[in-house]
Write a structure and sequence with these properties.
Layout (H helix, E strand, L loop, with lengths): L6 H8 L16 H11 L2 H13 L13 E11 L8 H15 L22 E5 L12 E5 L21 E6 L8 E3 L15 E4 L16 H9 L37 H4 L25 H10 L13 H6 L16 E3 L3 E3 L3 E6 L8 E6 L2 E2 L2 E2 L5 E4 L3 E10 L4 E13 L5 E2 L2 E3 L10 E3 L8 E4 L9 E4 L25 E5 L3 E2 L3 E12 L12 E7 L7 E7 H4 L19 E6 L10 E7 L7 E12 L12 E3 L10 E6 L4 E7 L4 E7 L4 E6 L9 E9 L2 E9 L1
Parallel strand pairs: 1-2, 1-3, 1-4, 4-6, 8-15, 16-22
Antiparallel strand pairs: 5-6, 7-9, 9-13, 10-12, 10-14, 11-13, 14-15, 17-28, 18-21, 19-20, 20-28, 21-27, 23-26, 23-28, 24-25, 24-27, 29-30, 30-33, 31-32, 31-34, 34-35
Helix pairs in contact: 3-7
């Protein structure tokens, strides 16, 4: 029998509600849509849920009385790309406090309840505790941070590193989700069998807590989603969205309703389905943004769900599990921190300042030390140091963090790339990769995952050498539910960039970027083919980029479908040529191009060849090219010196010797003019074995020679 409250009592309550004011932004739960999709694929899941409802409603069961208070261990997985979605521990702690307040009927806004519902509001007697022991027995604060592009997808495959669902309630926090939803969870019955990996709750970062990126209006979203996780439907049922049709959730003490996506402020707004019945729009399972309660029968339903086997909820609260997950630890133990950091810009010019940020997690850091190769400062204890690097190339950065419990460190050899003050090449220039020398080409693989650009000895146009993005991966032998098994499900949204050498185009007019590429997709419909190839240009060493070209769908496909095969172009008919106009002026002395491929789940390999930076030289040729410059001996050894032989013109020449990190070892000038010259570099100590570079400059012109020391 459905409970009914008359309109007179409702009118008495209207004047005392602060949270009943209409809100501009409203919570949108993805539960109904996901549930309907699952039920359409497998109608048995709907029958399973109906059986769960029947079991949970059996008041003769032990669910409502087995324990006075059920404690559930929880873990938050923060899936991020070092953006605002990488929320603080404090924001998570705030959310846990809100959950415990709501499920224990300790929220102050209970005073705003409509008269009549105040006696129905329930203390659910469920509490949530952050785990202090992870599945491997390690100390944890119940919050882990995972770097992944999946934070932008926010679907079931963004649920990285699920901890055993029979032991933990898993909550994933992400940046964005499809269909404009703020979060969703599945009924316990929906995640049985092979869909267990999706069990838990996924939610936007700005719906976590009432601080940080969260806000008071959205802070009950997780309260709502855990209701679904424990089997509760929306008050209008599982068949539609709010405001569509009157419906029922199968709970005896919640009135029939259409549901609300606003907070009623008038009598008529709250009497929709069975006037003068006032509907329970203040229920946590509604969308009204003035939700403050669960009913007694909802509380009994959730507690009964915790004792049935469906979804493994019946193990979460057992004494054994609470000990194994450390959920009863009070106070929580102090764990050792796990070192992590982010960089403000991955590419910069020599002499520019680069910012870093300590992003360590698992515990508060009390001591930290940074080490920056070729950096000024070379070390720092700041949480957010700013550093200037000398020399060029990829720079090594190390962070060591510690507290009273322990120490951890992280070393990155490619955290930041510094470009020299001169260009690698002078335009016009053609790169066909036949030399095999790709040292001046940069690869940006942010997640350091399997897919990445690399040099290929074959498969280029005319079966020549080229650059290849290796997207295809054979997963036929993958163990079920491992990262390899999920490879193609998590490929979508992955970004990999191939970055050209820097070109001095200041003396080139009418420039264009022309390149050949080959690509085939595993998709069979246009809706599946969401991948793209984007071409960018940078004139400041890659610090910022301007989009110049985007290739998608039919413009991107050169070789059709490649489902299930490791695509390799077999003829020139599978290649396309693309021309990109380039706007150049006389200050563009370090222009770089970036080829960024944005994958979909059906992406295959990409090949690029014959990259031409065209144009017409508008000034005289580099005079150094006419000096017959020779560096010798080359190779040399650790005891012999390095000399440069050349035919001098009327101007002096400057020489710089640098190591592979760009560190300048000596700078010298020879003022000899108009004749044959041999200049020996003045080395104060023998050179170690390795590669070195001699930069030769005259005025605005320069070129670089490589020297090998054996």
């Amino acid at each position: 029998m459905k409970l009914k409250f008359n309109s007179f009592l409702f009118v008495l309550a209207l004047g005392c509600s602060v949270s009943m004011n209409a809100q501009e932004n409203h919570f949108n739960c993805g539960h109904n849509k996901r549930t309907q999709e699952l039920w359409a694929q497998d109608p048995q899941l709907k029958a399973d849920y109906e059986q769960l409802v029947a079991s949970a409603r059996q008041t003769t069961g032990t669910g409502a009385t087995a324990k006075t208070t059920y404690i559930i261990p929880i873990v938050f997985h923060i899936v991020h790309e070092y953006g605002v979605e990488n929320i603080s521990d404090a924001q998570v702690y705030n959310q846990v406090d809100i959950l415990n307040r709501d499920y224990r009927k300790q929220n102050a806004d209970l005073s705003e309840l409509v008269a009549g519902y105040d006696t129905l509001a329930a203390d659910v007697n469920i509490e949530f505790r952050l785990a202090t022991i992870d599945p491997y027995g390690n100390c944890t604060n119940g919050i882990e941070h995972i770097y992944s592009h999946e934070t932008n997808n926010g679907d079931d495959y963004a649920k990285h590193n699920q901890w055993m669902r029979s032991k933990y309630l898993n909550i994933w926090v992400v940046r964005s989700m499809r269909d404009g939803v703020a979060g969703y969870a599945y009924y316990p019955s929906a995640t049985e069998g092979g869909f267990f990996f999706a069990d838990g709750i996924i939610i936007l970062h700005n719906y976590i807590g009432s601080m940080g990126t969260g806000n008071l209006n959205g802070s009950r979203a997780l309260t709502h989603e855990i209701g679904h996780y424990l089997g509760l439907a929306h008050p209008w049922g599982s068949t539609n969205e709010p405001g569509v049709a009157c419906g029922d959730d199968g709970i005896d003490d919640t009135p029939e309703t259409k549901g609300f996506n606003f907070c009623p402020t008038t009598l008529a707004q709250a009497q929709v389905c069975n006037a003068p019945v006032v509907e329970n729009y203040q229920n946590y399972m509604d969308y009204s943004y003035c939700s403050v309660m669960f009913t007694k029968d909802q509380a009994a339903f959730m507690r009964n769900t915790l004792v049935v086997e469906t979804g493994n909820r019946n193990n979460l609260w057992t004494d054994t599990n609470l000990i194994e997950t450390g959920a009863l630890a009070n106070p929580a133990p102090l764990c050792a921190p796990i070192a992590d950091f982010s960089v403000g810009t991955k590419f910069a010019c020599e002499g520019e300042t680069v910012s870093f940020k300590d992003a360590s997690w698992n515990a508060a850091v009390t001591d930290r030390t940074w080490y920056f190769t070729d950096g000024t400062p070379a070390t720092s204890t700041s949480a957010t140091p700013s550093v200037t690097f000398s020399g060029f190339g990829w720079k090594k950065v190390k962070l060591v963090v510690s507290n009273a419990t322990g120490t951890d460190s992280l070393v990155s050899f490619q955290s930041v790339h510094i470009s020299p003050t001169w260009a690698d090449k002078v335009g016009p220039y053609t790169e066909d990769f036949e030399s095999g020398n790709t040292v001046s080409w940069l690869v940006d693989n942010p997640e350091n995952n399997y897919a990445g650009w690399a040099f290929s000895n074959t498969n280029g146009k005319d079966n020549s050498k080229c650059m290849k993005l290796n997207n295809y991966r054979d997963v036929s032998a993958a163990q079920a539910f491992t990262d390899l098994y999920f490879y193609n499900f998590r490929l979508g949204g992955n970004k990999d960039a191939l970055i050209s050498p820097s070109y001095n185009l200041s003396t080139t007019s009418g420039s264009e970027l022309i390149f050949d590429f080959a690509y085939a997709t595993g998709g069979t419909t246009l809706s599946e083919i969401t991948e793209s190839l984007k071409v960018y240009v940078s004139k400041n060493c890659g610090k910022t980029w301007t989009l110049r070209e985007t290739l998608t769908t039919t413009d991107l496909l050169t070789a059709g479908n490649s489902t299930g095969i490791d695509f390799k172009p077999t003829s020139n008919t599978q290649w396309k040529t693309v021309t990109v106009p380039v706007v150049i002026n006389n200050t563009d002395t370090k222009t770089r191009f970036k080829f960024e491929f944005n994958s979909s789940d059906v992406s295959n390999n990409v090949y690029i060849d014959n990259i031409r930076v065209t144009g017409v030289l508008t000034v005289a040729e580099n005079p150094l090219n006419t000096m017959d410059l020779t560096v010798y001996p080359n190779p040399t050894n650790t005891t012999d010196g390095i000399a440069i032989n050349y035919v001098a013109n009327e101007n002096p020449v400057e020489f710089q010797l640098m190591d592979v990190q760009g560190k300048v070892l000596t700078t010298e000038t020879n003022t000899s003019v108009n004749g044959q010259v041999t200049h020996e570099l003045n080395l104060t100590s023998p050179l170690a074995a390795g590669c070195y570079y001699v930069k030769i400059s005259q005025g605005e012109f320069s070129l670089t020679k490589k020297v090998v020391v054996l």
